[in-house]
Amino acid sequence: MEKLSLEEINAKLSQLSGWSFTDGFISKTFKFNDFKETFAVMTHIAFEAEMQEHHPDWSNVYNTLHIKLNTHDVGGITENDFMLAERIENCTKNFA
Prior knowledge:
The protein has 96 residues and is an alpha+beta fold. The protein contains 3 helices and 4 strands. The chain has helices spanning 6-13, 35-52, 79-92, and strands at residues 20-22, 25-31, 57-61, 64-69. Strands 1-2-4-3 form a 4-stranded antiparallel sheet. A hairpin with a 2-residue loop joins β1 (20-22) and β2 (25-31).
């Protein structure tokens, strides 16, 4: 998997609502109704991440989930990160 250029990253980000590129990661913060809903979404994302064998850096406090993605093996952003970001968007559509 090849690392994407800044131009490629920005072009792909324009297709993802609310995602940004900072400090070598693409990231987004999600807010849900409560902790149970947040945890349910995280569980859905965990299954997607396992299927792709690509895992997010994430943290959550109560109803807020912050996700950062990059491909550690290449030290940057790859297609894998955008594929997972799209799956994450799909996991969150039915919530909040």
